[in-house]
Amino acid sequence: MYIKKSLLLILALFIFSINLTAQCAMCKAVVEGGNETMAEGVNNGITYLMIFPYILIGLLLYVIYRYRKKTKK
Prior knowledge:
Shape: elongated
Number of helices: 3
Distance between the termini: 16 Å
Helix content: over 70%
Number of strands: 0
Low-confidence stretches: none
Largest sheet: none
C-alpha cells in the first residue's frame, strides 16, 4: 500500500513538473538575449536532461517493489 502511494506521488510530481520551465541564471540570461527558437532549445535540453534521474529513480523503486514482492511469498 505504501509503495503504491509513493509511486503515485512520484508519477504525479513527474507529470506536473513537465510544465515547469525553470532555468539557471546563466541559461536565463542567454535565453533573454536570444530568439524564441533558442529558448525552446534550451528548455527542451533541460527537460531531456531531467528525464534520466526520474527514469533511474523509477527503476530503483521497481526493483525494490519486485524484491519485496518476491520475499513476501
